[in-house]
């Protein structure tokens, strides 16, 4: 217990050696002394897999180096074989020279066809833009120019001969903006729509049948990809595109972008659910359900390909819709 004398003020010198200076500890704020929120313990958090710093990917480097060495060895062996075969002045050398010439000729022809297919797709895209601009601006001059390009696109085709003849008979009597393109839609493209609709249905039925009967999933996936690429090339050919393999890949990218932009995948799922019913899908076998869904998705891709590659929008011709194609998936698949 302290006395009153100890609490009295005193005089001291700053340099007194008996003076002890005690540093005051900083006071904790209210946020630091507050209790942790409910559900959080005061124990330190254990490190997770995301907190652990990953080291250098030596395994990935090993596999990459092995793959690079394998490709390099194959290239060196191939180059050495070709050089030695061409250097020989006997029957083996002559055969190797002939085969190499055929290889180079075939590669040049394939490259030329791919380039021509890309140019045709680009021409089709420009024609679509010109037609859309003519319809938007209601410009008769641009409309006649677009119709002339459309007739040039289908010139010489047997399946468009009747439509071209009808166009030549009636286009002189058309004087209203937009009527000439409507005439082309009825006479030129409506008959082609029937063919593309049949092609889409055949591909959808093939995909549905193969998916339902395939014993392995990867086989069905490969077939679905190949069949969809073949369908895209065929549809583009009907409308004047005729793309090669590279053009088909580019067209597939455009079709997928179109489906995403229009919400077509969700629409296909909704249509399939309305057509079969959720309870019926659960009662059916898994393979049959996958086959029907893949067939419906192929039909949606085909309809999107028609919308992308068709030079004219649907003006007077009836549009092709997925909901009109789905009921036919249950019909007997024709022999192909």
Give a topology summary.
Elements: H1 30-33, H2 58-87, H3 91-137, H4 140-153, H5 161-170, H6 179-213, H7 217-238, H8 245-262, H9 264-276, H10 278-283, H11 286-309, H12 322-325
Helix pairs in contact: 2-3, 3-4, 3-8, 5-6, 6-7, 6-11, 7-8, 7-11, 8-11, 9-11
Give the tags:
single chain, 336 residues, mainly alpha
Describe this structure in words.
With 336 residues, this protein is an all-alpha fold. The protein has a domain at 122-330. 68% of the residues lie in helices and 0% in strands. It contains twelve helices and no strands. The protein has helices at residues 30-33, 58-87, 91-137, 140-153, 161-170, 179-213, 217-238, 245-262, 264-276, 278-283, 286-309, 322-325. Helix 3 packs antiparallel against helix 4, helix 5 (161-170) runs antiparallel to helix 6 (179-213) and helix 8 packs across helix 11. It is extended and about 120 Å long. The protein starts with 29 loop residues before the first helix and ends in an 11-residue tail after the last helix. Mean pLDDT is 77; it is low at 28-33 and 332-336.
SS-based class? mainly alpha
Low-confidence stretches: 28-33, 332-336
Overall body shape: extended
Q: How much helix, percentage-wise, in residues?
A: 55-70%
Put simply, the count of helices is 12
Kindly provide the radius of gyration, computed on alpha-carbon positions and rounded to a whole number of angstroms. Answer: 37 Å
- Overall mean pLDDT: 77
> In percent, how much strand structure appears in the residues?
under 5%
For the termini, the CA-CA separation is 111 Å
Please trace the helix and strand order, writing H or E for each element. Answer: HHHHHHHHHHHH
Largest sheet: none
